[in-house]
Amino acid sequence: MEGTLLSFLLVLHNLFMLISFTQLLFLKERDLGMVKNDKWIREMASKGMIEPFDKKQVRKGVISYGVSSYGYDMRVADEFKIFSTANTTCIDPKKPDQKSFIDYRGEVCIIPPNSFVLGRSLEYFRIPREVLVICLGKSTYARCGIVVNVTPLEPEWEGYITMSISNTGPLPAKIYSNEGIAQLIFIQASEVCEISYADKKGKYQAQKKITLAMMK
After folding, report:
1. Distance in angstroms (rounded) separating the CA atoms of residues 98 and 213
2. pTM of the model
3. What is the pLDDT of residues 125-176, one digit of tens each?
4. Between these two residues, 107 and 9, which has the higher pLDDT value?
5. For 44, what's the count of Cα atoms within 13 Å in the CB-facing half-sphere?
6. Alpha-carbon distance 37 to 185, whole Å?
7. 43-51, long-range: CB within 8 Å, 24+ apart, which pairs?
8. With contact defined as beta carbons under 8 Å apart, do 33 and 188 qualify?
9. CA dihedral 165, 136, 212, 159 (to 10 degrees)
10. 114 backbone dihedrals φ, ψ, rounded to 5°
11. CA atoms of 81 and 15, how far apart (whole Å)
């Protein structure tokens, strides 16, 4: 009796898996969130999604930037805010102190050991309403213990991206201005959101420079 019940449950499980797989096969493209390819990125860039824009990946002699198969490698501009402990004993995300940062501009930025800088993208971005963008640091920097952190770019957000660049190593680390820093992956949602970043008047909308944390 137990063997018969077990066999029945196994058949039922396999039937359920077959039905689920069949449903997945017949899902329409619009029902799935999709990672957008190089062709789509070029088309949207021509409409102002990325400025300035490199339609091919630039590699020779630089940390690569430009369009890749399923993403865009953005560059870091030549302006930075280097964190300093000289004027602060505690970092408060709710009340960031401008005095905790030293403004710097140059072709190479040196990050002290176990510290970080803030930078901004060279490119200005305008994200479509049905798209969410994920940012991941480039492997060239990751292999040197340098971590790039950017929160997702929300639908209809626009501006220069403010990024945190951390040096997790015991030695100073170089960041090269006007070269690749991170890859953006564009994900199109299955449905358009009800409220976009522009709709809710997000506090970092249309930022033109490196922007410290803000509270509304």
Report:
1. 10
2. 0.83
3. 999 999 999 999 999 999 999 999 999 999 999 999 999 999 999 999 999 9
4. 107
5. 20
6. 9
7. 44/128, 44/186, 48/126, 49/125, 49/126, 49/127, 49/128, 50/123, 50/124, 50/125, 50/126, 51/123, 51/124
8. yes
9. 130
10. 50, 40
11. 59
* Amino acid in the structure at residue 98: Q
Residue 164 one-letter amino acid: S
Confirm if 173 and 144 have CB atoms less than 8 A apart: yes
The single-letter code of the amino acid at 205 is: Q
Question: pLDDT digits over 13-48, tens only?
Answer: 554 555 554 554 554 555 556 999 999 999 999 999
